[in-house]
Design goal:
Layout: H1 4-13, H2 30-49, H3 62-70, H4 92-109, E1 117-120, E2 124-127, H5 128-150
Length: 152
Amino acid sequence: MKTLTALITELENAMLYIEQKNAAISQVSVGWHIEHSLLALIKMITATEHSNPAEYKKRFNWKRTLVLTTGKIPRGKARVPSSVKPGDEVSEATIKPLLEKAKQKAELFERLSNDKYFTHPVFKDVKLNKARRVIAIHTIHHIKIINDILKP
């Protein structure tokens, strides 16, 4: 699986097409997918960074297991939490600072201790080793949508 830094670079490379849409693929623009992916990545890493390992609750979660096993998130099934939903105006000016912050967070993420975790709205508590994979799978999910929007 690609590193988070490599995935952020793929999102950055799609910046040329931020206004492109294809309603047959997605109701929102390429820029929306880039911004959402960056917001989610930053939020998940920040939550992991600030987690208290003593509060971690281990429990089985079939949706998490399914996504981690298949490496895919089904399209059109989830609702975007407001905390990672892009605003009405998506532009280079809103995305550029997020790209820089995401790069810093990805670098920091590699130095976190293995007992750190984040709490996902669907997957619940996700330890660092699985968190890395969840973040990557989510980002790849949106990169695939972006690529489909851009297909001729």
